[in-house]
Design goal:
This protein is α/β, with parallel strands linked by helices. It has helices at 11-22, 37-45, 57-60, 77-84, 92-97, 113-126, 141-147, 160-164, 191-199, 218-221, 276-291, 296-305, 333-341, 364-370, 382-388, 401-411, 433-445, and strands spanning 3-7, 26-30, 49-51, 65-68, 88-90, 103-108, 131-135, 153-157, 173-176, 210-214, 232-237, 245-250, 253-258, 264-267, 314-319, 322-326, 347-351, 371-377, 394-398, 417-420. It is 34% helix and 22% strand. The strands form 3 sheets. The chain has a 9-stranded mixed β-sheet with strand order 7-8-6-9-10-11-12-13-14, with helices on one face. Strand 2 (26-30), helix 2 and strand 3 form a beta-alpha-beta unit.
Length: 447
Amino acid sequence: MKNIVVLGGGESGVGAAVLAKQKMFAVFLSDQGKIKPKYKKILQKHSIAFEDEGHTTSEIFKADIVIKSPGIPDDLLLINNLRNQGVEVISEIEFAYRFTDATIIAITGSNGKTTVTKMVYHILEQANLSVAMVGNVGDSFAMHLATQPEVDNYVIEVSSFQLDNCVSFKPHISILTNITPDHLDRYNNNFNLYRKAKFKILQNQGQDDFFIYNEDDLAITEFLPKISTNVQLIPFSKKQLKQNIAAFIEQNTIKINLNQQKTFNMSINNLNVKGTHNAQNAMAASTAARLLKIRKQTIRESMESFRGVEHRLEEVKVLNNVNYINDSKATNINATFYALDSMTKPTVWIVGGVDKGNNYQDLLALVNERVKAIVCLGIDNSKIIDAFGKTVDELVETANMADAVLAAQHFSNAGDTVLLSPACASFDLFENYEDRGRQFKECVRKL
């Protein structure tokens, strides 16, 4: 019997442990921090040995395979020592993949991946296909395999951290939405290392598989020729493309050409979610659906009924003719760029958190044009103050969501928008971006 050690007792780690136990491995889970009570209950229910608030290295080094949670850095001394001793270190996504023959549709990117994942899942569900949505949204991939009936199709949102530790993971369809500077603190502030991690999504794909990518993203198109692959490439773009296999927008209409298939047309005016970035997301998702031979009408109806993603430009409330918008999922500069770019009214911007190597200069023109006041929400706001202190008339610092919302209300007038779009991670003041977004909504609804 092989020994499996799982490092990290969160969603993916516990899912991996449960699947490993089900597959008759000897399993031990170890977490440097404190495991949440809900996860301890799951481990106890499945009789899985575990520890928290520290690692017992003598137990960990008994491992034949280590499954590492994505939050644990690759350059940790413990991880390096395990690899030096010949122990295989993989991600939960990689481990789960080894136990299914289902069709995999995998989505990654700096921004938009959750929206595209949910769009693809929504279309497949509306088409009555056997499908589950796993990974960074929904259940962990491993937990779903262990505890739910297996499905024919898995739609998986994967992060660069998960891809870093994939070996054989091979989607039938992969989608890369974009690559912009993010998580650079985990990649030695080297954008190229981060970009390479994203491209690992196609490393095992072959000539019968498909890679759908953003042709408008220079970070993708300049790197793609350096990749040795025979996967079928399908670009999507805001501009008209001449290729036989491509998706693009022409005269406010999404057009998808897939060789011998008739062109698929869909007006972007009929999309339930607005904005150019959502038109691109819909293009990517609809292209995947067409490759799976889903009827055109089903795709159109699905995109017309798709409601968007919580914490992504989510309208919360209109109070005294001020629109409050929750974009807590914007944890990097590019995501916040999309948000500010979609603002059509004077905006009070709530920003801040754990900086991930942000270059705020990229937002300067938009802030100058659209933002009337800035409310900082974080423990260290110095970079934000340095970047925008001379650009806006009003800038204040707050250390909790209630104060941030009250300050934003104070600065806003009828016809304005209050936008929470932090451009930063949330871990200084909140459990995660969902917690941050929910606190924002609760505070707004109490006004």
